[in-house]
């Protein structure tokens, strides 16, 4: 069995003392693999993600990351621990008045102050290259970039501190099919480039999940409904899973479920 990167055990979360957004959530995310978390709206995906990041504390339950219990960490301990994460936000969330290079330099200036600026710039340029951005765009601000460029800069910034866990929050929401495929390819190729990194993708797009995922976790009513491979989902007898698959997957996916994005596995 693969080593576990994140172990969520019987986590419950209520904001009002009555309704539970997470209601006995248990999920083990393997180290070094791509796990896609899916589910209909309101099933707890975003709240689970905030717990994994330590932005929310559970009402009860345990969350261990690389064997460390994060629910009992102090604010300072969490701030330091989060340097092990990289986060690509839904809309890249770049600083509007900073160039591509400056956006990637930001976390290095915040958390690697011991490094000389020349070394920070070298790291930032290498991360932008890893994310597939042409050097001629490094001096552009976000308003001068295409959607695809902004995603690449956001990913480069997420990679800046060489994280052990990469988290993608709805990375293809609102994108056209061509850009969606580009982002999926980018996630897969980045995972391949950063061997050993644990990648977590929160998504509503089951078709895309099947293309890139090693594992898929489907949530329902604040609990884990099914965890398995794309093939497990295609052949599941669970009625809600069958509905989700029918709703979110094109018929052609059955022939493609075994075709992981080749660039990510070469």
Please describe what this structure looks like:
- With 266 residues, the chain is α/β, with parallel strands linked by helices.
- It has a domain at 1-66 and 199-266: P-loop containing nucleotide triphosphate hydrolases (Rossmann fold, 3-Layer(aba) Sandwich).
- The protein has helices spanning 45-52, 75-81, 100-111, 117-130, 147-159, 177-193, 206-212, 230-234, 239-248, 253-256, 262-265, and strands at 4-14, 20-30, 34-38, 60-65, 68-69, 85-88, 165-169, 198-202, 215-220, 223-228.
- The strands form two sheets. The protein has a six-stranded mixed sheet with strand order 6-7-8-3-9-10, sandwiched between helices.
- A hairpin with a 5-residue loop joins strand 1 (4-14) and strand 2 (20-30).
Give a concise summary.
With 266 residues, the chain is an alpha/beta fold. The chain is 38% helix and 23% strand.
Topology readout:
Layout (H helix, E strand, L loop, with lengths): L3 E11 L5 E11 L3 E5 L6 H8 L7 E6 L2 E2 L5 H7 L3 E4 L11 H12 L5 H14 L16 H13 L5 E5 L7 H17 L4 E5 L3 H7 L2 E6 L2 E6 L1 H5 L4 H10 L4 H4 L5 H4 L1
Parallel strand pairs: 3-8, 3-9, 6-7, 7-8
Antiparallel strand pairs: 1-2, 1-4, 4-5, 9-10
Strand order of the largest sheet: 6-7-8-3-9-10
**Distance separating the two termini:** 23 Å
**Total of DSSP H or I helical runs spanning 4+ residues:** 11
Structural class: alpha/beta
What is the architecture of the domain at 1-66 and 199-266 at the second tier of CATH? 3-Layer(aba) Sandwich
Write the element-wise H/E pattern from the N-terminal end onward. Answer: EEEHEEHEHHHEHEHEEHHHH
Question: How large is the radius of gyration?
Answer: 19 Å
User: Helicity level, as a percent range?
Assistant: 25-40%
How many strand segments? 10
CATH superfamily of the domain at 1-66 and 199-266: P-loop containing nucleotide triphosphate hydrolases
Give a short account of the largest sheet: 6 strands, mixed
Fold-level CATH name of the domain at 1-66 and 199-266: Rossmann fold
Overall average residue pLDDT: 86
């Amino acid at each position: 069995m693969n080593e576990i990167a994140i172990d969520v055990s019987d986590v419950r979360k209520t904001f009002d003392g009555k309704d539970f957004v997470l209601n006995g959530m248990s999920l083990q995310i393997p180290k070094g693999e791509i796990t896609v978390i899916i589910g209909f709206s309101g099933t707890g995906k975003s709240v689970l993600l905030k717990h994994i990041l330590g932005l929310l504390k559970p009402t009860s339950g345990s969350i261990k990351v690389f064997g460390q219990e994060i629910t009992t960490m102090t604010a300072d301990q969490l701030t330091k621990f989060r340097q092990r994460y990289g986060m690509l936000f839904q809309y890249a969330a770049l600083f509007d008045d900073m160039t591509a290079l400056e956006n990637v330099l930001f976390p290095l200036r915040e958390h690697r102050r011991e490094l000389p600026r020349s070394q920070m710039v070298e790291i930032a340029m290498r991360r932008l290259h890893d994310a597939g951005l042409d050097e001629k765009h490094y001096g552009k601000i976000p308003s001068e970039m295409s959607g695809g460029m902004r995603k690449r800069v956001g990913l480069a910034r997420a990679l800046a501190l060489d994280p052990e866990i990469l988290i993608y929050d709805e990375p293809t929401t609102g994108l056209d099919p061509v850009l969606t495929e580009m982002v999926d390819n980018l996630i897969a190729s980045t995972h391949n480039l950063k061997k050993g990194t644990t990648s977590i993708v929160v998504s509503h797009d089951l078709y895309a999940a099947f293309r890139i995922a090693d594992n898929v976790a489907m949530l329902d009513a604040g609990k884990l409904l099914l965890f398995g491979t794309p093939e497990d989902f295609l052949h599941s007898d669970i009625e809600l899973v069958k509905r989700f698959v029918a709703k979110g997957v094109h018929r052609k996916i059955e022939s493609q479920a075994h075709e992981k994005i080749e660039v990510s596995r070469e």
